[in-house]
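Researcher: Please predict.
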Amino acid sequence: ASDQLAFVVVIDPSNAEASELQRQIREAQERKRQEELDLRRKKEEEEQQRQASVRAAIRKHIERSSGLAADGNYSEALRVITRAYVVDPLSEEVRACEQRILEAQERAYRAAEEERRAAEQAANQEREEELRRATEAERERLLAEQSAAIEREKKLNKETIAKHLGRAEEFIASQKFHDALAEV
């Protein structure tokens, strides 16, 4: 319409209707440009609000997963951080939080494994010590039994010797020296 009107103005520059139409076209173009500007501004505001809500949701997920990780609930923390990836799969904050959780989980696993190994080693040492004590007690018992057996044997030998010597004295008294010698 503006091109056609420009042609009319070239032919009749003093045409009042053409000037009025040109003014109306300019006003309509200005309104259209203002509407487009308003629409673009509104879209930018909506995009800013959407980005702000995405950042808030990510921050919430990060805080929650960090809290869960601090409590030692690493699998739940990773599940929550996975939800943050759904909100923004390219977020460096989410990736860094996930990495911190995985590192904390690995440290906790290593610490638990070390604690388990230390407990197992302590239990093994305790069993070895109990076995050593039991072996020592058994050895002492056997030595005590052996000493008691030796003492019984010595006592029995002394009694037997005393009995033979007593009989030998009886034979000497009855002057049976050959029998006394046999008893000795």
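Model: The mean pLDDT is 91.
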